[in-house]
Amino acid sequence: MEKLQIIEYFGKVKTIQEYNGYIHSVGRTLAIVILGSLCKLSDLVEIHQWASEPKTKEFLEEHFAISTIPTYNWLVSLMRIIKPESLNEMFTKWTRTLLPEFLDNLTISFDGKTICSTGNMQEYDKPLHILSGYLVELGLTVGQQTVDEKSNEIPAMRELLKLIDVRGSMVVADALHCQTETAESIINCGGDYLLNVKGNQETLEKDIKDFVNDDELRAGMKTAYTHEQNGGRIEFRRAFISGDVSWMGEHIANWLGLASFGAINRRFTIGEETSDEWHFYISSRKLSPEELLKYARNEWGIESMHWLLDVHFSEDSCRVRDDNANQNLNIIRKTALNYVRNYKNITKSKLPLSRLMFACLLDCYKILKIINW
């Protein structure tokens, strides 16, 4: 096996192995796919056409020592033979280089996304479902784990917590992950949790709900509210929080680090229709009501990343029929989004991600600024 150089952690130099007999190296071909994705190209057909253009070929040779462009079939073959676990490990290590030393008070949201097109393919017994961790304030994906279906997100999240650094952060997730073992994993990894309590923790939900519904008890809770109007939609959110968990009995023993509980009442008005919802929470941190509102809202921040994958890369329409290839492309798309988001964070650019990526397509030398090459 001959060793050759590629971009380390997608930004510097690293050595990986090239399989004997292949004309084009794995490393440099992978670099082409990553750089093409930075130009907002959504599939391998577009990436191959882009890489084959004379100006692009000149750029790739000058800055990345890529002197020949592989065929389209080789691009597809590459995505199939690379182990997603290996690529994901490299992605996770590289992402750590983008993060601040301390994650204190930052939010990491966990949620899964199904690649919808895989549900209609005979090659898949079940649709491909990927659980991701997302650092909300910086807009960076910090890790992912492929699962068979949504119910398998529970153990997958615990495994993912071991791979990424959550020390000092607030970990948020939907009610599916309101599990005692998950709370313990978060604490053991150095983070704090804010978990949405629903029917899967029936006794805990009932106890908090009864407390909040008692007018006298609720009067002793700290409270804050927000009010937003967007077009014809009006939203009123009021938070109630208490750090007195002494009455919670067995729940204190079951939930490691339990330090506060609370509720948020959300009222939506659209036209003449009004809805009223209550959400109940537990946390390992003594939160203010303002913090409860902030972290609970940040739980939904990961949806912006899912939206970008669908809108910019048409992921839900992807017709790739190989499981490895689909997982690898998902990691590469997140790599591209992380690169552009990190560039925005550093430069304070007001341009949207889509325009920065389109600028790379028009002039590939702009890629060098995005990846700080």
Low-confidence stretches: 1-21
Which whole number gives the mean pLDDT?
88
In DSSP terms (H or I, runs of 4 or more residues), the helix count works out at 15
Sheet having the most strands = 9 strands, mixed
Return the string of H and E elements. EEHHHHHEEEHEHEHHEEHEEHHHHH
Assign the CATH class of the largest domain. Answer: Alpha Beta
* Helix percentage range: 40-55%
CATH topology title of the largest domain: Transposase Inhibitor Protein From Tn5, Chain A, domain 1
**What would you say the CATH architecture of the largest domain is?**
Alpha-Beta Complex
Shape annotation: elongated
Structural class: alpha+beta
Task: Give the percentage of residues in beta strands.
Answer: 15-25%
- The radius of gyration computed from the alpha-carbon positions, rounded to a whole number of angstroms, is 23 Å
Distance from N terminus to C terminus (CA atoms, Å) equals 28 Å
Count the E strands: 11
What is the CATH H-level superfamily of the largest domain? Transposase Inhibitor Protein From Tn5, Chain A, domain 1
- In the residues, how many domains can be counted? 2
Going across the major beta sheet, what is the strand order? 5-4-3-6-7-11-10-9-8
Textual characterization of the structure:
- The chain has 373 residues and is of the alpha+beta class.
- It has 2 domains: 2-84 and 341-370, no CATH class; 94-305, Transposase Inhibitor Protein From Tn5, Chain A, domain 1 (Alpha-Beta Complex).
- Helices cover 43% and strands 24% of the residues.
- The strands form 2 sheets. Strands 5-4-3-6-7-11-10-9-8 form a 9-stranded mixed β-sheet, with helices on both faces. It has a two-stranded antiparallel ribbon with strand order 1-2.
- It is elongated and about 75 Å long.
